[in-house]
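re: that chain from earlier
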Amino acid sequence: MPSGPTFIHPTSEVSDDALVGEGTAIWNWSKVRERAILGEQCNVGQSVYIDIDVVLGARCKVQNGVSIFQGVTLGAEVFVGPNATFTNDLYPRAQSPEWTIIPTVVEKGASIGANATIVCGVKLGTYCMVGAGAVVTHDVPPHALVVGQPARVIDYVTVAGSRLNWADPSVPPPVEMLKI
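^ sequence. v structure.
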């Protein structure tokens, strides 16, 4: 993660109304909209779109090609893999006077794999892991490893991301096992 002064690549566009934390790096061709808040020491890759009012906690890493739309809040130390997308509308239409933003929360330490889609209105628990290409349509428990379309729990992971190979993924393991 970057340390030291904030870096914004000259090809990126960051709104004057956005707050960018110390030591955060925003790489080429990215866009950060009004009232977005990026915590300290975040790393925002190439061609990332961060919409109005989005919040990134400290030390988040957002890889190339990610779109984070209004209504999304990322806790500290969240990893978002290349080309992952967050939605903010369950029933999208080109014109919809009834549209309201549906919030999505990603808690501390969660990891989201490349090309995953996070459908709005879900909560991703602390240190959970979303596999590459997964489509998340429901809340993900803390430390759960989810894969597939729609995503389903197949195991649990430690804080470091190691799989537990837990016998019954429908029953979470004891908390002591997850701190490894």
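The chain is about 0% helix and 30% strand.
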